[in-house]
# Entry
Amino acid sequence: MKQAVYKRILLKLSGEALMGEQGLGVDPVVVERIAMEIKAAVKLGVEVGVVIGGGNFFRGLSASARGMDRVQADYMGMLATVINSLAMQDYLERCEVRTRVQTAINMEEIAEPFIRRRAVRHLQKGSVVIFAAGTGNPYFTTDTAASLRAVEIEADVILKGTKVDGVYDSDPKINDDAVKYDKLLHMDIIQKGLKVMDSTAATLCMDNKLPIIVYNVTKPGNLERVLLGENIGTIVTTT
# Structure
């Protein structure tokens, strides 16, 4: 029987990962495939928490740069993450995976409020817990929310699913000579200005010795490969 090397994970997905080749919104085919990969992780006995960004609908920082009030824009971005979380919940439950959505902003009609002990109990009982609405505060990214929730639920690792197969010294879509890192330190993210996570999220992970693995979420089966210990993507550690 296959044995996962991690017991509890926090899976961080960008909103853009859900829209596939569409320019906006959610691609049902992509969401269903990711849901099936999460189901496979649960079958391995892994406890899965999920944080999804909202960039496929709205980016608070971008709107702020165009003149919108930053606080208002960030709250709109939080609501976009809730839309994605509800979509993922729907597809997971279609795959017969028990799922709970917990939000940092109270909206009892559609989700539970975030309560750490309740989230941990859900995970222990085999439910996937999706953490929505960021931290509930403006000026914090979903990367920071993912780091915070991972620390709170005592996850073994953050798995950051992206559209590329790891961390590069420059954008591989623009620069053909971009060099991929197999391993990094949390401090490297800050000092080199790498576009992995923002400095607040990276510092939180560093202070709590929480590793991050950045991998290509668009390639089928990659999540299971990471959980089984294969060296794909880029791992970020404290030492």
